Amino acid sequence: MFFPTVVPDIAYALIWLWIFNPLYGPLNGVLGAVGLPRPAWLVDPGIALYAIVIMSLFQIGEGFVLLLAALRHVPRELYDAGAIAGAGPWQLFRYVTLPLLAPWLLLLAIRDIVLTAQSAFVAAYLMTGGGPYYATLFMPLLIHEEAFDHLRFGDAAAMMLVLFLGVAALLFLVYVTVRGWGYEDDA
Question: Diameter of the chain by CA atoms?
Fold first, then answer.
């Protein structure tokens, strides 16, 4: 589960380019063997975005490892005290586990918001080039094209500022939603 997060983005995108190959890819081979339709994953504008989303779903192992480390720091005595008080599994999760994992979940949310703004670049650049019909043209790829293909550095800088402000707005929304950056130790 952790292995896809260790593989470099370029190699990871090339592996998925092979998996999504409509003629020789193993995914379409399995779909054809089962009798399901075999889509042209990276050629059809309606499906290309889903292909990149499927590819990115396999890179969540790092978050799981971080949450497993966080779970090891939850004191066992709190679960024992909750069980003695008559709490069930869902109440233990809601009132013990979730509040103690809140700072870790917040850290993951902030990290994922920041990384999402840049992680789709390599996949879209290598696998589709922003196509078909601009279906996978994400903001970082558009900024790259404006700056280095069209040599419009001012437009690219303005787009980068808009992207930065959008990420900052999302981070502020997360901050306001959770009312701070974690729990207080003085409780």
Answer: 68
